[in-house]
Amino acid sequence: MEKSCIFAADFNCIYMAAVLEHSPINETQRMLLRTFSRINSEEERNDIQALLLDYYRKRVDAHASSVSFSNEEIDEILNSHSRTPYK
Fold first, then answer.
1. Chain-centre distance of CA 29, in angstroms?
2. Which of 3, 29, 70, 79: disulfide with 25, CB 3.0–4.6 Å?
3. How far apart are CA 37 and CA 50, in angstroms?
4. What DSSP line would sit under 9-61, residue for residue?
5. Average pLDDT over residues 20-24
6. Could you report the per-residue pLDDT of 52-69, keeping only the tens digit for each?
7. Cβ–Cβ under 8 Å, residues 52 and 31
8. Can you tell me the distance from the alpha carbon of 18 to that of 10, in angstroms, rounded to the nearest whole number?
9. Where along the chain do its domains lie?
10. Sequence-distant (≥ 6) Cβ neighbours of residue 37 within 8 angstroms
């Protein structure tokens, strides 16, 4: 690993490589870190954030459409007191 860097971007890449090499993170997290390290503007960050939110929104919608409750079950959930009791 280099000891000195001319550009801040070089330092960020070297630092990230060191972090990734010694971190207990999975391959998906590594891929996301590499992707996010290349973001050069807030607009790019917002675009990627929108893509990720859209992906998870679609997954939640797909799951929610497969779950159904009767009116009685909904009333029971709304009227329940499911707080953890204090001891």
1. 9
2. 29
3. 17
4. HHHHHHHHHHHHHT----HHHHHHHHHHHT--SHHHHHHHHHHHHHHHHHHHH
5. 70
6. 999 999 998 888 888 888
7. no
8. 12
9. 1-38, 41-79
10. 12, 13, 16
